[in-house]
Design brief:
Radius of gyration: 19 Å
Largest sheet: 10 strands, mixed
Keywords: Dioxygenase, Iron, Metal-binding, Oxidoreductase
GO molecular function, one term: oxidoreductase activity, acting on single donors with incorporation of molecular oxygen, incorporation of two atoms of oxygen
Pfam family, one: PCO_ADO
Order of helices and strands: HHEEEEEEEEEE
Structural class: mainly beta
GO cellular component, one term: mitochondrion
Protein name: AEDO dioxygenase
Distance between the termini: 30 Å
Amino acid sequence: MPRDNMASLVQRVARQARITFRSPAGPAFGENLHRLQQLLDEVRAEDLHLVPQGPSAAAAAGGGVPWAGVVPPVSYMHICETESFSMGVFLLRSGACIPLHDHPGMNGMLKVLYGTLRIACMDTLPPAAAAPPPPAAAAAGGPCHRALFRSRQHYTPASPPCLLSPHTDNLHQIDAVDGPAAFVDILAPPYDPQHGRDCHYYRLLEGPLPPDAEPPALPREVWLTETPQAADFWCGSEPYAGPRVCL
């Protein structure tokens, strides 16, 4: 069955994102968010002129020193950005991981274009006097944070978009499983360190599981510690060759 005009679909997603996130506290936000989710769910790799592959060698130029000339594990294609949202595509090499990180005060939506992603989602929890103490592994680290480990799921192009809000699933880790993968990413508002929306990375404070042990059931409370960006993770850039988006 022939698809509709591909460029109009990408344009419609961007236009709906602008409508949705310019009034995130408005009475129509839930309805607009649902409409955006429906539109994004229709997007496929061919709509953005993508073919399944990891970050290309051309992306190495975006890695900067000290990785110049080295293909990054992850690269980003910028599509558009306003004060209220940003939209682009992340491409992951096989086995690449975007480490556990947060989105302070932000909403987000992620749609897989090709490949398989394993996404672990967590919520931050307020301090509690009755909470158990952090594990001994945290003694030499930085401040610890309580969190609710909500889910760990696989996403493919057939999956609906993965959503995050300022309070739900706001922390996540993204792993490419069994090959390269790519996803459309919408964040609202965009990261902006000057306005308190910087990206922070975290490490789960848990010891290794015994051999053949089943992973602990979810959801469950966990402890996290903030860490610097991992030395083996960086994000290059690639030119976006899909349909033009005008806002």
